[in-house]
Structure formats: C-alpha cells, structure tokens
Design a protein that fits this description.
With 227 residues, the chain is an alpha+beta fold. The chain has a single domain, classed as Fumarylacetoacetase-like, C-terminal domain (Fumarylacetoacetate hydrolase, domain 2), CATH 3.90.850. Helix content is 16%, strand content 41%. The chain has five helices and 17 strands. A hairpin with a 5-residue loop joins strand 1 and strand 2. The longest helix is centred in the first third of the chain and has 13 residues, at 31-43.
Length: 227
C-alpha cells in the first residue's frame, strides 16, 4: 500500500494509507461544455464515455508524492486537478496532477489513467475549513518549455463538480471510507500551448486565506526497450 503524508495549516502531519484511488472524468459543472469537449476528443480518436461524469478506478499505488514521473514516450501530459483524501479524522483537500498517457487514451481512457501516477501535493487543507468558499479557489497549471514556464490551465474549483457532489457519490457506492482518494477531473487547457512538456507545475490558491498548495515534477523519459 502507498502511504501519503500531508502537512496541514496548523503544522500537524496526517499520514494516510491509500486503499482506493478514483479518477473523475468529464466532471465540469457545465455539462454542455463537457459534451462539446467529448466531441472534440472524438475527432482525435478518443472514445467517449457511456455516461458523464465518469469515474475510473485506478491502482492505489499510483497515488504518489514524487518529483519525477517516468514515461515511455513523448505523448504524455498532466492535468490540473484537486484531490479528496478521506481519513479517520475527516476529509482533506489538496492539489493533484493526473499524468496521462495520450497515446493509450485513444484505446481507452481508463487504461490511460493507469499508465502514469496521480501526483498529489504534500500539504492539504481540511475540507470543512474551506467549504464555504470552494468556488473561489483558483486552479492553475504551467508547463516548462525551452523558453521557460508557460501557463496551460487557468480556472477555479467553481468550474468543476464540487467535492460534496463526489462525497455523495462515494457514499452511495459504499466507498466513502478512510484511505479513499478521489481526483476531480480537470479544467480546459489553453489552446496553442504544448502539453507534451518536460515538467509540470500545478497550484491551488485560496484568496480568502492567502494559502497555496503546489505540486511540481519533471517528466523523465525511460530508456529505450530491448526486444
């Protein structure tokens, strides 16, 4: 099992053994926009879901707090997201980047989600402490290119289905247990920015408290296979 460790705003540490990892997909709050996105992906050969929003089980060990993500080829990229982490003491909220194999995605979204890790932040907030202003929290991502960092996603938690929505889904499924981690689904990427980058950085910022949670990692190519 993977154990994640989070620093909370009061300085305490919370360790969580991940028993279940779930990735939400097509989880925008405006489902008309989601359907338009599905149509765009279909033109690229990505199969659409049978229902929206979608929820994909992912191997629990893919929940990681790492500075490097190893990849097998150049067609992988991250996605700015938030993550719910259910503990014995309540629900935590942190930032995440869902690294996805885009070449595999055309054969199956669920497969592509299991090809690379979900990278989570090392700090977290208690959901109860931010619930009354969740929609105001910003969610941004940058990629590192030869010319420096470039903004690729710029939105807020208000663009996505809320944590409470997903907590109800988990409860209905009998999955709202300590050790469950749910990743939110992502927000649109800025057109014209190359997502196949050497590094990703995601930041979630709370304008009320002034606190931020960030995650960043390098994308590291594996050696060429033999055979």
């Amino acid at each position: 099992m993977t154990t994640l460790s989070f620093e909370l705003p009061d300085g305490t540490l919370q360790d969580v053994e991940v028993t279940r990892l779930l990735n939400a997909g097509y989880a925008g709050r405006e489902q008309d926009e989601v359907q338009a996105h599905i149509a765009e992906l279909a033109e690229l050969g990505v199969p659409g879901p049978t229902t929206t929003p979608a929820l994909y089980p992912v191997s629990p060990y893919l929940a990681q707090q790492t500075r490097e993500v190893s990849v097998q080829h150049g067609k992988t990229s991250g996605e700015a997201e938030w993550a719910l982490v259910i503990t014995d003491d309540g629900v935590l909220l942190t930032v995440a980047c869902d690294h996805t194999d885009r070449a595999l995605e055309v054969h199956g979204v669920a497969w592509s989600k299991n090809a690379s890790p979900d990278v989570l932040g090392r700090t977290a907030w208690r959901l109860d402490d931010v619930r009354d202003h969740l929609d105001d929290i910003t969610l941004r991502a940058w990629v590192r290119t030869e010319s420096g960092e470039e903004l690729i996603q710029d939105s807020s938690l208000g663009a996505l289905l809320s944590p409470d929505y997903w907590l109800e889904v988990l409860a209905d499924m009998g999955l709202r247990d300590s050790g469950t981690v749910l990743i939110s689904g992502t927000v649109p990427m800025i057109h014209g920015v190359d997502q196949f980058a050497a590094a990703w950085r995601v930041e979630m910022a709370d304008p009320v408290t002034g606190l931020t949670i960030g995650v960043d990692y390098d994308v590291v190519p594996m050696p060429e296979p033999i055979g």
